[in-house]
Amino acid sequence: MPALEPLTCTAGAAMLLSAVMEHQDPAFAAAPGTGQARHSDGPAAPDTEHAARRAIDAVWRIESARVIAGVARLLRDLDLAEEFAHDALVTALEQWPRAGIPERPGAWLMSVAKNRALDHLRRAPMLERTHQALGYEADMHEADLRAASEAAATDDIADDLLRLMFVACHPLLSREARIALTLKLVAGLTTAEIARAFLVSEPTVAQRIVRAKRTLSEAQVPFEVPRAQELNGRLCSVLEVIYLVFNEGYAATAGDDWMRPALCEEALRLGRILAELAPREPEVHGLVALMEIQASRTRARTGADGAPILLMEQDRSRWDRLLIQRGLAALARAEVHSDGRERGPYVLQAAIAACHVRAASPADTDWVYITALYDQLARSTASAVVELNRAVAVSMAYGPAAGLELADQLEQEGTLRAYHLLPGVRGDLLVKLGRHAEAQQEFERAAALTQNARERRLLLERAAACRRPA
What we know:
Blueprint lengths: L4 H7 L34 H30 L2 H22 L5 H19 L7 H13 L6 H19 L6 H11 L5 H8 L3 H17 L9 H23 L3 E2 L5 H17 L4 H14 L25 H18 L6 H14 L8 H15 L2 H15 L1 H14 L7 H12 L3 H14 L1 E2 H14 L4
Parallel strand pairs: 1-2
């Protein structure tokens, strides 16, 4: 069962209360008729070279995972696959500024990387080349993009990419390692980009990636899509990684910025790819729906100064209608593929998020239905954070006293002792009940627990407002 804690809070009503943040809210013009870039035999002009590098960066971000996956399937070695993929990138940096960008740059990169891998096998001493290695070589000849049909190659690449996702998100790895390895191999981020995104040092990220690869190698993890009996559990691991990447971008756990949109974009891209690769999995579509809907509110979640704007106070005209439509369409696909089965946690969270975007105004929100959805989610997850969100939904549907009673039970259990949103929610409910002194203490406690600077300021402002109630 994937961890639901952070994003659930935004999907739920907790972020609707004023006490709590939404915590989840003409260098390369083509030659006529060729489809290829113009090129010359001489060295590239500075502007041309700059344009080429930008184009190569864009192509690499899109194609790197497919290249690594294609070579990894043949060699069963992530380190070598990544090495040969980077060899292909270096070759592109050398040749494309002078010769022009190929018509199919991804296929070009794949062909170069596979040729490097084939050269590696040919250089290996004959006695050390196992029958398996010889089989891989034959496989490489058959899969060579210049000889294979485009349709077949596309199918192989899709399967390879799905295999890479499952390997990078293998449950043998720690959560941090899975995230780092997925962002490196599947999303194509550099170690420096991952480090900046999660506010850790580059050596820390590099060590996580090295250890992850070593763990997978020592365990001889097969480069394959899991079989039916273990597919569900492994898919949960993949979804969890994408979910956590999105959540860290949507509501950063630490640092000065409340959001890191680049991480949200990467998570959405990974989710959309996975939905194409696993089109019959309702939870995949559920997660995509949830992310699309949550991301639709990005522009409305902060003011000009970067200060958070809570959901109930957001200008709904600034919500991205295209993302909302995409999210609702993904939710519909999830419902279709559920085939009457009980909805999973991501589908339920997407359904909750859909209630908010379907409401023309905060007053139009169907809190009774949201409470019912949280009842289902609580039964399927056994998560204290889901229970906190349910408490807030209850408060919106049936009054703050009913919600506070449930929040107090969570306080007594102690599971969320270090979770800043529990005192934040209690503070807001206490304000609604006119108990301002108690609310001030709760907001101050929440501010002390959060590591996000924007969030802390908002909570302290709420605490100060309790000293001067209207």
